[in-house]
Amino acid sequence: PAEDLIEEGGSRICENCYINAHARIKVCDPWAVRSKKILRERAGLVGSEGLTDSQKEIYEFIVSKGGATRDEIAKRFDMPLEELENEFAILRHCELVKGQKRNDGVYIVPFED
Fold first, then answer.
1. Residue 113 in this model has a pLDDT that exceeds 80
2. What domains does the chain contain, in order, with CATH numbers?
3. pLDDT digits (tens, 9 = 90+) for 80-106
4. Burial class (CB in 10 A: 0-12, 13-18, 19+), 1
5. How far, rounded to the nearest angstrom, does the alpha carbon of residue 40 sit from its chain's CA centroid?
């Protein structure tokens, strides 16, 4: 119904679209990295332990290829880029992956590289 739509940037969108647009996790967030590091250490988690199945699959794909572009990963896992960005942010907060500039673009690579 029209009364359930939210005004956003001159457009009227549904509540789910509004939430999706504003539910992005910041990749570069030093406090999130520190918090995640402390939590993982206290829980005794290493590597991909404690990740969701989806996060583990993405991480293992990146490791197996030595790095991949966002588009390659999105295509491989049939995932919208917005959702993938949230997964990257969590993997980055766990210090499992990071961005790396290469001649042909930006790659997501294992953190150790």
1. no
2. 25-110 (1.10.10.10)
3. 888 899 999 999 999 999 999 999 999
4. exposed
5. 17
